[in-house]
Amino acid sequence: MNNRISYAAQIVPSARQLAWQELEFYAFIHFGINTFTDKEWGLGDEDPALFNPTAFDAKQWVQVCQSAGMKGLILTCKHHDGFCLWPSAYTEHSVRNSPWRGGNGDIVKEVADACREVGIRFGVYLSPWDRRDQRYGSSLYNEFFKNQLRELLTGYGDIFCVWFDGACGEGPNGLKQVYDWDGYYDVIRELQPGAVISVCGPDVRWCGNEAGHTRESEWSVVPATLQNCEKIQEESQHVDDGEFSKRVNTRDADLGGREAIRKVEQLVWYPAEVNTSIRPGWFYHAAEDDKLRSVEKLLDIYYKSVGGNATFLLNLPPDRRGLIHENDAVRMAEVGEILRSTFRHNLASNAHATATEALNENHDAGRILDGNKETFWCPQEGTEQAAIEIDLNEERTFDTIVLQEHIQSGQRIEKLCLEYLKGDVWQRFYVCTVVGYKRICRFPKVTARHVRLTVLESRWYPTLSAFEVYLGSREFSETEKES
Ligand code: FUL
User: Which residue owns the Cα nearest ligand 1 atom 2?
Assistant: First the structure.
């Protein structure tokens, strides 16, 4: 163990990053003038009169999110076309000049209120790139943008996230904008100190693709230089040819492993978010009504993102009525039902655990079973390898194990394996790399009473705050329902 590794092991999340991570699964809502023009990127010359969602119902959106088990929602308050879903005092290009609710409506308010009513967190997407505003390309635009931020961050209650898109091209005058990022961040920190700033921001890292692709080893401790990556205009997305959202960039498979951080001077806690859409596009297009991702694919992304030390931001685009289409609503309810039934009964809730060693009695092996994320097991400082045996009290059949590190102490586990006792021989059934906030281990069904978790490699010394055991197959939930 060297100094660099113990330095990496001691980097911890901020309170706002921790609160955000616990949301796990939340919705992206792309809705705006593009919904009515059938486009992905508007030019900014669209007539606001086009915006008229006659059956708009924010409660329906929120209900769909809840049925899927989502705990938050991020709304595109303004996309690249500049059209604002709230009656901004700083532009005429907004709902105020649309026929919807006679120009007296405020989509942002209705969505924020609907979220609050049911306890879903609300977040805002405000596109820095504005293809409409004539101030774009001058310092006046930065003032305008900060004013818009102030409106969103003061008028709509608690905001959990400000999502800054990396796409950036020219404004209406052919000019590019030099963004005052630090100025934007100051406004956010002042008005909503609990909100994370995502993608073009210091708190949440874009996973690097829009295709739902995930890394096997997703580190939250990465080089500090990554915080600036998405802000580099030259590397941003300039055209929307439908290809970008499908592209996977495997170049950076390892961002935080030993090799990746070996020579890096400054490391930061910069955890990943996986964002993708339930449909091929981000905005609603009737032609895509039968092109939804399957339940299996959505669950696969869920398990690899939420269960792979990232969060899952899934886009559900409302249609021209202002409703999430029936097909999408049904699919999300199916996903939610499977997740609920999978994680309903923790088969390790009455288990007993013993470890090869523990730091002290406050950190004994039992802490991984107590259902309290604040408590955790850890061995002595400097012990990089250790094992815990879990006695489930009786033979159980399971195919899913959930592990959580105590990330308030840092991210440390680099490799582990799971074994079960067959006769008197330990049989290995699962090996993985990092854990971090959460690792959902999935494997073919195992029937056993004794399970052993061995930390094979770690930084400084590992921690574990949760070990849960489930049987996720559909037969299980049906049997459970009957009994
Ligand atoms: C991209 C944008 O250009 C897309 O339209 C979409 O908003 C996606 C989430 O980010 O950069």
Answer: 167
